[in-house]
Write a structure and sequence with these properties.
Layout (H helix, E strand, L loop, with lengths): L10 E2 L2 E6 L9 E8 L5 E9 L4 E7 L4 E3 L2 E9 L4 E10 L6 E6 L2 H11 L4 H5 L6 H15 L6 H8 L11 E6 L5 H9 L10 E3 L12 E5 L3 E3 L3 H11 L5 E9 L5 E5 L12 H4 L3 E4 L11 H8 L7 E12 L22 E7 L5 H11 L6 E7 L7 H9 L3 E5 L7 H9 L6 E5 L3 E3 L9 H7 L6 E9 L5 E3 L2 E3 L5 E3 L19 E2 L7 E5 H6 L12 H11 L3 E12 L14 H14 L1 H5 L39
Length: about 650
């Protein structure tokens, strides 16, 4: 049994830092971690484990609920320590941090197995659901995540108390506040304007009718709706943003829900505005500031309708302030709904080739491709199955594949398997306008409409020449989410948004159902312009198994194109049925090398994803939830610019 104690360390926002060395035999083992104090006050603790091989924090999650033991209050968790781990840090959050003792104990395998099973027993039904194939892997994965999922996170009220701040002293700015429309909550809205720490230069406007807009006398107008209550520093933050981002014509900001008892809940940490997102109620919710000279005439006398018209301004002229500036009374906000679907006119029908790398050794390849062909209403479409090692393929499966309509087999000789190299070699034989990178274990989800519109929805986004790549929403075979876009920095490198959430859950504020720009999407189902793929040199073959899709998408954005997440295209991904885990066995040694390469090339975007809010958590499973502490970043975010690689 190994023990380690650490004294109180340096202060941090909302708490303290405890640094600890690991027991000598912790590498590659599960450890029990306990943090305890004799002080009965409220506190929370987040574990951070650093791995030298990846130059990053590789484990980060909150400890479990408090319990009393030997007259002390303690929190605990289990953590698997990678072989290259070099240290453990505990970040403690409390109003008045007490002194702590930190204990790290290496567990035997049977102890770890029993503890994980007990902590994760409620997750077993989800792991057992779905096809029998892969059930052992699903059980291991979910039980391994049980400690992080059981973490006890500080309440939103504590986040507000610790991290909400006033802006720097703003210069004078020419602004009027317009309360647009009539309805319940107007008195609270007006009262909040009068209580601002920075008072506007012009009197408050009430806009019950469209003609009342003629009374605007300021260069900037802040539009609020009855029931939307400005935070005390809201106008000061708008002033600071206007002075620091002089090219912008409008500003949006984050918001939350104001409950009847005066408490706040459900923070909405918005992504940076983009052309697609600005068509949804999500981006328009809460107060916004707009340059009056940029506002079109004849605005309606309803705030949400007025903001919807203003959202048609050039997205590059709309900036975002990552601060909670509006508290919306319950019932005052319209329900969140996706932006209108991008429709494909019949005249726009570019040719598409689905490129499917496969070992052709498992019957699931045939099942998935049949569903791809049968549940697809897009006609200008064909499939190329790229065989990296045709001699090792199952002859019966090859015969079945050859008999499928619109399927072409392309024998290659690439060994050992390199996913990027297989795709690059196969693209040389493709002559279509669009290329659909598709795994051989992906199949469309059969919905009420038969799922026939999945490819049509993806192709529709390509009408805009700015769009370079489009990704789909993917579910695991048991219906849990696998992919809703890639968030850079999530899990301290990059990770799929929404992973292991129920597929029927639309996510916080229905974000999972909204088409929007993202930094990257998975290559398991990725539509890209063929000429752009070739111009970029294809996938980087140094990323032999994974991260090649993330690197490709970031280079798409570097070229000036956008990457779009398309939730209308929902498919099932029976991940890794043919190749096993990305980093199992001999491939394990590639992980550190590929992670270091991605981190070195895309350091800036990993540290600050332009499509993810710096107030939101980077812990897997807590996407779009409050970050403890928030990350340092710009106080105003404009439309994402093309990336620069290192």
């Amino acid at each position: 049994m190994q023990h380690h104690q650490s004294p109180l360390a340096s202060p941090s926002p909302g708490g303290v830092l405890l640094d600890a060395s690991l027991p000598p035999n912790a590498a590659g083992a599960w450890c029990a971690v306990r943090l305890s104090t004799a002080d009965p006050g409220a506190w929370w603790a987040k574990l951070e484990l650093t791995d030298a091989a990846r130059f990053q924090v590789v484990r980060e999650f909150f400890l479990g609920p408090t319990r009393r033991r030997h007259r002390r209050i303690e929190r605990g968790t289990l953590v698997h320590v990678p072989s290259e781990a070099i240290g453990l840090r505990m970040r403690v959050f409390a109003d008045t941090p007490p002194s702590f003792e930190l204990d790290v104990r290496v567990l035997r395998r049977w102890q770890a197995a029993f503890s994980l099973f007990w902590r994760g027993r409620h997750l077993l039904p989800a792991a057992l659901a779905g096809a029998p194939t892969g059930v052992a892997g699903r059980v291991r994965a979910l039980l391994g995540q049980a400690p992080a999922r059981a973490g006890d996170v500080p309440p939103y009220a504590s986040w507000i108390a610790w991290f909400e701040t006033a802006p720097p002293p703003p210069p004078d700015f020419d602004v009027q506040v317009a309360v647009v429309g009539d309805g319940p909550g107007a008195d609270a809205t007006v009262e909040a304007v009068r209580a601002q720490t920075l008072q506007p230069a012009h009197p408050l406007l009430r806009i019950p009718a469209s003609s009342d807009w003629e009374a605007v006398r300021a260069r900037w107008v802040v539009i609020v709706s009855p029931g939307e209550v400005l935070s005390p520093h809201a106008l000061a933050w708008f002033a600071h943003a206007i002075s620091s981002c002089v090219q912008a014509a409008g500003f949006t900001a984050d918001c939350d829900c104001l409950l009847p008892d005066g408490s706040r809940a459900e923070p909405l940490f918005k992504p940076a505005p983009d052309k697609l997102l600005l068509q949804s109620e999500l981006a328009l919710r809460g107060a916004g500031a707009f340059r009056w000279s940029a506002i079109p005439p004849n605005l309606p006398a309803r705030a949400q309708e007025a903001r919807r018209i203003l959202a048609r301004l050039d997205p590059r002229a709309i900036a975002h302030i990552p601060r909670i500036l509006t508290h919306i009374e319950q019932g005052a906000a319209p329900p969140a709904h996706p932006a209108p679907h991008v429709r494909r006119p019949a005249s726009f029908a570019p040719s598409v080739t689905a490129l499917v790398p496969s070992a052709a050794r498992s019957p699931h390849v045939v099942r998935c491709l049949r569903r791809v062909l049968e549940t697809n209403s897009y006609n200008n479409f064909g499939v190329t199955v790229a065989l990296a090692s045709p001699d090792s393929a199952d002859p019966r499966i090859l015969r079945t594949l050859k008999a499928l309509p619109r399927v072409h087999l392309l024998p290659l000789n690439i060994a050992p398997f390199n996913y990027a190299a297989v795709n690059n070699a196969a693209v040389r034989a493709v002559d279509s306008e669009l290329l659909l990178l598709l795994n051989d274990d992906v199949a469309p989800l059969v919905s009420q409409d038969g799922g026939a519109g999945w490819l049509d929805a993806m192709v529709a986004h390509m009408q805009s020449p700015e769009v370079g790549a489009v990704g789909a929403r993917l579910l695991y075979g048991n219906g849990m989410v696998q992919h809703e876009g890639v968030i850079m920095g999530l899990a301290n490198l990059c990770e799929h948004a929404g992973r292991l959430r129920p597929g029927t859950d639309p996510g916080p504020h229905a974000i999972a159902l909204m088409a929007r720009e993202v930094s990257a999407v998975t290559g398991a189902c990725l539509l890209i312009r063929t000429d752009l793929y070739r111009r970029l040199g294809g996938m980087d073959e140094a990323f032999a198994v994974a991260l090649n899709d993330v690197d490709l998408c970031l280079r798409v954005r570097q070229s000036g194109h956008s990457v779009v997440f398309c939730p209308e295209a929902t498919l099932l991904h029976f991940e890794s049925l043919s190749l096993g885990r990305h980093y199992a066995g001999a491939r394990a040694e590639l992980e550190g090398l590929e992670v270091r390469r991605l981190r070195a090339r895309w350091k800036d975007v990993i540290e600050a994803d332009p499509f993810y809010n710096p107030l939101a958590s980077l812990e897997p499973g807590r996407e779009w939830q409050p970050s403890f502490p928030p990350r340092d970043g710009e106080t105003v975010r404009t439309a994402a610019k093309p990336l620069a690689a290192h």
